[in-house]
User: Fold these one by one.
Assistant:
Number 1:
Amino acid sequence: MGGSLAGLLAAHVLAGHADRVTVVERDRFPDGAKPRPGVPQGRHPHVLLQGGQTALESLLPGFLAELREAGAPRVGMPADMVLWQSGRWFRRVPASTHIYTGSRAQLEELVRRRVLANPVISVREGTDVVGFLGDATRVRGVLVRDRSGDTRAESRPLAADLVVDASGSGTKAPQWLAAIGAERPREETIDTGLAYASRVYRGTNGALDGETRGYYAYPDPEQVHAGGALPLEDGSHLVIVSGLRGDEPPTGDDEFVTYAKRLPHPPLHRWLAEAEPLSPAFGHRRTANIRRRHDLPGRPAGFLATGDALCTFNPIYGQGMAVAAMSAVALRDALADRRRTPTTRRVQQALLAASRLAWDISAGADRKMPGAVGTAVDGGPADQVAGWYLSRVQERAPGDPVVGRAFRAVLTLSEPITALFAPPVARAVLFGPPAPTPTEPPAAPEEPGALAQ
Ligand SMILES: Cc1cc2nc3c(=O)[nH]c(=O)nc-3n(C[C@H](O)[C@H](O)[C@H](O)COP(=O)(O)OP(=O)(O)OC[C@H]3O[C@@H](n4cnc5c(N)ncnc54)[C@H](O)[C@@H]3O)c2cc1C
């Protein structure tokens, strides 16, 4: 169910184990790399983190070279960006990680082209899943309906040995499970009410054309606005501003630019005031963290959830696509493990495990944001200790290259959270004061060798 990133990558893995994999997708896929209605978030920045790059490359060898050839910018962090967090500018020491910042539509199209070339996989485009077949013990397929426009069209059964829900954060699977008598997943939620607005601009003052590829200011409990400009494949920049419930960014022409003044420093506003808009501004307000616990006992066999349908993150941390790819790797590994029968529950547990680090980062940060609501807002005492340690990490990451490297490795999902507790990192975090940081936005990268300082 769903032919976006999570669905395509799950289909790719399952094609190695099934006679036939059918992807049911409500949209008709566009010709080429264009936005489509089923993925409205595609108009907003979509960075591909290191953990997602590794996973995609392992699933589709050669994928990153294809992405680069298609022009997707590969941006070194922190060297290539002007970054601000927790009241500090990051030193622009040599990059310890890279992100891809090209458009979401381009990335999805490249994945789609690779995956759908497999003859085992077929797609039913323009088709809605509208319910499940089966009973409390087993999902046996789905009910589908053509989106031909005829609302009286009958739904038809499509039997399957395994149904995978990759229909995104708005999934109806919990209701459909209940309708066949199966148990719904328990939902954990944390919602900060964060809202986005994004718009494409072409810079006119040259500030983002050379060594500086973009800006980004992260939000925190004291400074709840975020904003940034990230390069796209055609040389333009996708600009995002965000704020919390009650102070959502506007999508009107002038108001969008003025909103950037809420950031605690002027570079983004200054750049925007001179830049040429190339698109309207698009807003997005559904940004809650939602985790659906399909892994608990008593769930029906023959059903798995993956991607955003399993675990949706506050998009400000840029994790969802990476987790979709990492989940496909987890699916591949769970099915290939000859020591254990891949029961539905075991595989679902492996899928959930693939999203755990991203959830800990996103939920951990959002619990501290003012006005956060939801069933999982209250963390236990262990979360409070972790929160105290992580805020010291955040204070030190901008100025201390060793802490910064570990921080980025974890945040980009390429190393486990334990990397933040490695002895040199822990020493700096527990015993040292924060290292000095630039007083002004650094205009150029530091020379190689800075990491040794
Ligand atoms: C504003 C915003 C910004 C984001 N930024 C980033 C970022 O910087 N980096 C990052 O990694 N991630 C980001 N994400 C998350 C990312 O978009 C998702 O995690 C990613 O697309 C994987 O999602 P998915 O495939 O599970 O679901 P989706 O991409 O949401 O796709 C769901 C698919 O299911 C189809 N569908 C839905 N219902 C049905 C149905 N009943 N029948 C048939 N088809 C159906 C839809 O048409 C769609 O194709 C962002 C998300 C948002 C909202």
Number 2:
Amino acid sequence: MAVASRLDTGLAFTNVLLPTLAKGVIVRRSGVTALAEKVQADALAVATVKRFRARYGPEPLRLRVTGRSIALVLDASDAARLLADSPEPFRLDTVEKRAALDHFQPHGVLISSGEERAARRRFNERVLHPDKIDAEGIVRDEVDLLLRHARSTGALTWDAFARAWWRAARRIVLGSGARDDHEVTDLLRQLRGNANWAYLHPKRKRLRERFEARLREHVERGEAGSIAGLGDPDEVVGQAPHWLFAFDAAGIVTMRALAIGGEGHAGIWESARLWPTTPVILRESTEPTDWHGTWLPAGTTFIVFAPYFHRDRDRLPYADEYAPRIWPLPAEPGIVPFSGGPGACPGRDLVLVAGGTALEVLRPHLEVPVLRAPLPATLNHFGLSFVTRK
Ligand code: HEM
């Protein structure tokens, strides 16, 4: 198995991993995201990984990092194996994820292991079900109001969209009593801001306690029609920080889907393929694993850089186009906007319903698409704005 030269290890960090980190993994930083769009940072990242594959071959590429075993995955079949064989022997709760997510969701399924993880996963799968909550009705309500506002100003901006989206998210997760409680999601945003820095930022215990107390008030109402009404309050309080956090990604994906004229579930899927909101999927091996005859030690961190698998023009003729026809089951195993296997996103169907409904309500009233092929490698959602139709 190839080991990257020092220079290439450096390039893996400067061109691929650091720009992703700088944009903000847990909450996006608007200034850096705008800059990333300007320089089309993802184009350079994808080109860099492609060069590695041409130079070193398809096997996972070991990076030269002292004291750690880190491998960059270069072949879609290896990415598929990692996801299929999670959480054993490829755990989801890697060192990096624990360091980041512990700031705001210490009981989240994504950073849990063993029996605890299995129980939390089952709970997520049970309650995150579009048939159990009227996500469609809630989104329709909030987006109708948003549309009225947009028509009065002549434009739909990201800021206005995000306000409406958060109202919908709080209603879906916590119930109508939380609709206007900006503070609960603002507190979460502050904690997520610290989580961007993972272990470099001290934990703010008091801030987390304030957030959790406020969250618990809503959860204990157990409002019918919300996810909080579907489970034991302690379990909900443990998982809801992730749900609220993840609705941010769902809003970003929805707004970008509008920009390409996306429709229905395939519109949401395509937006998430073209601009994955989890660009770096990590796994860590719990035992030595055999990669085409070479053994990598237990504790190896595997990096699946999704944009490389989603946007490689040499392998995918539709890489830079809106290609709804490839869904729901893309032939290419490396296309994984919602991850895959036993650790795949349990909120996916809810996202497809919520986002798809927003597209259906908004699309006929806006001048879309505003982007055409070849679609940009990096798209700053903060800068998106649509003119309303007369
Ligand atoms: C566009 C929106 C979304 C995208 C693209 C997305 C994508 C993903 C991805 C790629 C993962 C796997 C992470 C990993 O393997 O490390 C994941 C995990 C997860 N997602 Fe989502 N997600 C979205 C929205 C949501 C929403 C709205 C919810 C809940 C309401 C949710 C709940 C979860 C949970 C609980 C996990 C952890 C699963 C586990 O550890 O087994 N996601 N998501």
